[in-house]
Design goal:
The complex is a heterodimer of chains A (612) and B (358). Helix content of chain A is 66%, strand content 5%. With 612 residues, chain A is mainly alpha-helical. Chain A has 4 domains: 61-138, D-Maltodextrin-Binding Protein, domain 2; 144-194 and 207-237, no CATH class; 242-441, no CATH class; 443-612, no CATH class. Chain A has a 4-stranded mixed sheet. In chain A, strands 5-6 form a two-stranded antiparallel sheet. The longest helix of chain A has 29 residues, at 244-272. Chain A is globular. Chain B contains 12 helices and 4 strands, in the order ααβαβαββαααααααα. In chain B, helix 11 (312-321) crosses helix 12. Chain B is elongated. The two termini of chain B are 19 Å apart. Chain B folds into 2 domains: 13-52 and 175-357, no CATH class; 58-159, abc type-2 transporter like domain (abc type-2 transporter like fold), CATH 3.40.1710. In chain B, 66% of the residues lie in helices and 8% in strands. In chain B, helix 3 (75-82) links the parallel strand 1 (66-71) and strand 2 (88-92). Chain B has a 4-stranded mixed sheet with strand order 2-1-3-4, sandwiched between helices. The chains are: A mainly alpha (612), B alpha/beta (358). At the A-B interface, helix 2, helix 5, helix 6, strand 5 and helix 7 of A face helix 1, helix 2, helix 4, strand 4 and helix 5 of B. Strand 5 of chain A pairs parallel with strand 4 of chain B, so a sheet runs across the interface.
């Protein structure tokens, strides 16, 4: 980029900032401050008075229990359960879910409604009893008797063949300070109570646990599992590897982005209202500079906020690296939305769709950070790993961020294609504008090949999403659906821009041209899909489902040359089918797409059964 | 207010405007997007529920047992505890090395090395560092160890001031049963409300920015009627969407109770949110400013009301799961009264606005 366009970019960005700040005039700012103060006042007041709390599951189960019953405090102290006088008629009506009755303080009987809700209430009651016992034990003066069992959990990679590995893992005891971050707050405060009784207790366990708090009072909480690490504590504090608090912290990164894209979408659509953007369009500045200049302040704001959050929650550079593609994805999707929307109302729907979709897409896989490598389809997993103190390898980082970055660049390019008078200020339908956007990127065979290749990250995202959704379905059902879905996704990616080109009369309708476009697209797709090798680096195809998605493209090293050529032939043939159909109306294109998908799915099916 | 000749032939202008707003939404087809979002949320949430249950509740996996290797001088105590758990089968090993090799060869998925340490039992639990399996193994190991802890506590009851309560039977309930009611239902109910408020902001600021409010004002309607009409359209669509989702969930096998009261509460909240939105549309200088204020106002409203006992989220959850009591209905009443009050406030604001200055 030349120095001149850099200067122009800077000026546009500055202008955008000054206008954005101008929007927040004194009245708006004053009202905003009043609202914030009001919220703070209400929340603060309620919290101070101790009346409330954000327990959304408060009193959702009703338990019939007498105040004299030894289990009464369990129910009374629980947020989920509410205590009522036991009433068998209420139980029969479903107005009470569980009844606990004590006879002579010896024999305890309990009864549930037998419904799904009753069983769930029973399960909640059981875990509340455990929690109650833990609280009781924490205040016992004799901590050795209260906590007779100490547990160290170590995660060990199997088949490492030497007992030395175990010994090494044992010696390498992690410090308790790390665990505090993850452990539940109850245990954290309980430990202080225990510490006071320290003097009366034999100092057991100090030698082996490397001088941790285990020696005095209750054992420390066992934190969320970090693979390869070790945890110590009482049995109740064992948590399966589920990165709950890291996940919650990672979610904090996503919240401010919603505000950023709302303002960003507004500024894009604002240009299109009453032809306001025309002045900027006729100025001697390139389109790219205008868009970059208008985007830069919002990108900076998004990254700035994320940086502050990263510092606040204890994340580092890895968190920032994980958040960057998410910020880009939010902005690029909003840019396209702002270019396509016809009114503010439409923009609102688009913005909500974008935030819900991207948030879900990045958040849900991150839940499984410690469970399966599929989690790496989300850059947020990188953030969660960082907050857990795990560092991501270069391969993992690339696997989860590159598709997002490439995807964002593609979206920006598509939006830029319609950043021109005839699309900005007219009320064309969204599919029309979408075809315009694709058409604007095309010139000849080479551009068709390039854009097919650029769609691959989207294909990737769509396919991984399909895998994630079908992850829990039984494998007999999920594999066939997956094969067809993947075939359809790939066929659309190979042909939609060719269709756009034909609809805008960019390509010659002659049959050889159509076949040529099909060959260019199919071959490009084949080459680009080779990049799924990155997926194999991370070990994704270890999963049976991953294999179904990626094996048909032929990455297994045992393949012969003939088998290597088969997928190439497939992609070219199906792309030619759709290219022929694309010359005509939508219905014809749709039918061609259908045929191509069937051919593709059939081929995939044969390959999968061949391997099986 | 302007005097109006209320002839029977003339439709209420508010209804006309509301009808136009709803038709516009239908024409733009973006309402389809809103439905798609909610379908997506619902679909993914059930995916989550099923996924979590199968991950953290191995009872779903039939006949799944975990082989545990047990060694150490406190092995007997541990074996006794493990015998209460059907899903964990134990094998005793004489020394650490043979347990290790069983683990490495895959004949054991878990090693308990239990040793007495003064008066306590220290158990080194070794689990494989793999994927889904690890979670299940850790969960099962915890259950065994908690049983052991309980038994050991009973043995030491003489040294304890309180005896720990024994568990009431074994749990076979779904620990994620309440997820649908406490998260999914409120989410599906509140999302349309947020969107309704947001489109109210859009609808008003767009008229102001495009300058079409002047045209509308040439027509024989007052600004209050215009705002009423736009608000009416936004208020109607949110409860309708919420109702659709609740019925769909019921059809799908998740019983939702008290649908009527939930819809009433939803309507009241929508009125409040839409009134806030319309107020912000007049206070903010343009769409960006107004949407910004609206977001803060909505967050303030929900944060404020969720902290109050019997907040709307909790009330909806309790109504839906059929655990409502008097406070739930009291909450509905308060929200209905608040809705009337807030809407009255909006009308006050609008009557102060000089349309010529917009």
């Amino acid at each position: 980029m030349s120095r001149r366009s850099l200067r122009q970019l800077h000026r546009i960005a500055q202008w955008e900032v000054s206008r954005g700040v101008g929007v927040i005039d004194r009245k708006t700012a004053a009202v905003g401050v009043i609202l914030l103060l009001l919220t703070g006042g209400v929340v603060g007041g309620v919290v101070m008075s101790g009346a409330g709390g954000v327990a959304i599951d408060r009193d959702i189960y009703r338990v019939g229990v007498d105040t004299e019953n030894p289990y009464y405090p369990v129910v009374a102290q629980s947020s989920q359960l509410s205590a009522h006088p036991p009433d068998h008629e209420a139980l029969a009506r479903g107005d009470q879910d569980v009844i606990i009755e004590a006879f002579d303080d010896q024999f305890i009987s309990w009864q549930t409604t037998g419904t799904e809700k009753g069983d769930a209430a029973h399960a909640a009651l059981l875990s509340e009893i455990d929690r109650y016992n833990e609280r009781q034990m924490a205040s016992e003066p004799n901590q050795t008797a209260a906590y007779p069992v100490l547990v160290d959990i170590q995660y060990l990679t199997r088949f490492v063949d030497t007992p030395e590995a175990l010994a090494a893992a044992q010696a390498d005891d992690t410090s308790t300070s790390d665990r505090d971050l993850e452990g539940d707050t109850d245990s954290g405060s309980d430990r202080d109570t225990g510490a006071e009784t320290n003097g009366e207790q034999p100092d057991s366990g100090a030698e082996t646990s490397g001088g941790t708090d285990t020696a005095s009072g209750p054992p420390p909480a066992i934190g969320t599992g970090v693979f390869g690490g070790e945890q110590s504590g009482s049995p109740a504090t064992i948590q399966p590897p589920f990165p709950f608090s890291s996940l919650l912290l990672a979610f904090v990164f996503l919240i401010p982005l919603n505000f950023v894209i709302q303002a960003y979408g507004s500024t894009i659509l604002n240009e299109r209202i009453n032809r306001r953007g025309e002045l900027l369009l006729v100025a001697p500045v390139s389109r790219r500079t205008i868009i970059a200049g208008k985007t830069l302040p919002y990108f900076t704001a998004g990254m700035g906020v994320c940086g502050i959050i990263a510092v606040a929650v204890g994340g580092g550079l890895q968190s920032i690296a994980g958040v960057l593609p998410i910020v880009l994805a939010f902005l690029s999707a909003t840019f396209v939305g702002g270019m396509l929307a016809r009114s503010f109302k439409e923009l609102t729907f688009v913005t909500v769709t974008i935030s819900v979709f991207i948030t879900t897409y990045v958040f849900v896989p991150a839940i499984f950070t410690n469970v399966t490598p599929i989690a790496l389809i989300s850059p947020l997993t990188i953030v969660v790993m960082d907050l857990q103190g795990q560092s991501a390898t270069m391969g993992e980082l690339l696997f989860s961020t590159v598709p997002f970055v490439v995807g964002s660049v593609v979206l920006f390019a598509l939006g830029a294609g319609i950043y021109r008078e005839e699309d900005m200020f007219t009320q064309k339908s969204i599919p029309d504008k979408f075809l315009d956007a694709l058409n604007a990127q095309l010139s000849g065979y080479r551009s068709v090949a390039l854009w097919t290749a650029l769609f691959v990250p989207f294909v990737f995202v769509a396919e991984l999403l399909a895998i994630a959704v079908l992850f829990v379905a039984p494998i007999e059902l999920s594999i066939p659906i997956l094969l067809i879905t993947i075939a359809a996704i790939e066929e659309i990616a190979k042909s939609i821009h060719i269709y756009a080109g034909y609809q805008r009369a960019r390509f010659d309708r002659a049959l050889p041209v159509a076949l040529g476009l099909g060959i260019a697209s199919g071959a490009a797709f084949f080459v680009a899909e080779k990049f799924t090798a990155i997926a194999q680096v991370v070990g994704l195809p270890e999963l049976a489902l991953g294999q179904a998605a990626f094996a048909p493209v032929g990455l297994t090293p045992t393949l012969t040359i003939g088998l290597l050529l088969a997928p190439l032939a497939l992609h070219v043939v199906t792309a030619m089918i759709t290219a022929i159909g694309a010359r005509d109306r939508r219905l014809v294109y749709g039918s061609a797409l259908f045929i191509a998908t069937l051919v593709h799915a059939l081929y995939n099916y044969v390959v999968v059964t061949f391997y099986a | 207010m302007r005097k109006r000749t209320n002839g029977s032939s003339r439709r209420n202008p508010r209804l006309t405007i509301a009808g136009r707003e709803v038709r516009m939404l239908g024409k733009e087809k973006t309402i389809v997007l809103a439905l798609a979002i909610q379908l997506f949320v619902a679909g993914f949430s059930s995916f989550l529920v099923v996924g979590l249950v199968s991950l953290y509740d191995p009872t779903g996996v039939d006949g799944y047992t975990i082989e545990a290797a047990v060694t150490g001088d406190a092995a007997d105590e541990l074996l006794a505890a493990a015998s209460e758990h059907e899903r964990v089968s134990t094998t005793s090993y004489d020394d650490q090395a043979s347990a290790q090799s069983a683990f490495q060869q895959g004949s054991a998925q878990l090693i308990f090395t239990a040793n007495w340490e003064d008066d306590r039992i220290r158990i080194v639990t070794t689990v494989p560092d793999s994927n889904v399996e690890t979670t299940i193994i850790v969960t099962e190991a915890r259950d065994v160890l908690q049983t052991l802890e309980r038994q050991q506590r009973v043995d030491r009851a003489a040294f304890l001031e309180q005896t720990p309560l024994s568990p009431l039977g074994e749990s076979d309930g779904n620990p994620y049963y309440d997820f649908t009611y406490t998260i999914l239902v409120p989410l599906l109910v509140f999302l349309p409300i947020f969107i309704s408020g947001s489109i109210t902001v859009d609808s008003i600021t767009e008229e102001i920015e495009r300058g079409t409010l002047d045209l509308l004002r040439v027509a024989p309607v007052t600004l209050t009627e215009i705002v009423d009409g736009k608000a009416l359209a936004a208020i109607v669509i949110a409860p309708v969407q919420a109702l659709t989702w609740l019925l769909l969930l019921t059809v799908n096998g998740t019983p939702i109770h008290n649908i009527g009261p939930i819809v009433l509460l939803t309507t009241a909240i929508t009125v409040i949110v839409v009134a806030l939105a319309a107020t912000m549309a007049f206070v903010g200088s343009d769409r960006r400013g107004a949407q910004f204020l609206y977001s803060i106002a909505v967050i303030a409203f929900f944060a404020g009301s969720s902290f109050l006992p019997g907040g709307p989220t909790n009330t909806i959850a309790r109504l839906a799961i059929d655990s409502a009591d008097l406070t739930s209905y009291l909450t509905i009443g308060i929200f209905v009264v608040a809705a009337v009050g807030v809407y009255g406030g909006l009308r006050g604001v609008v009557s102060q606005v000089d349309p010529n200055e917009l």
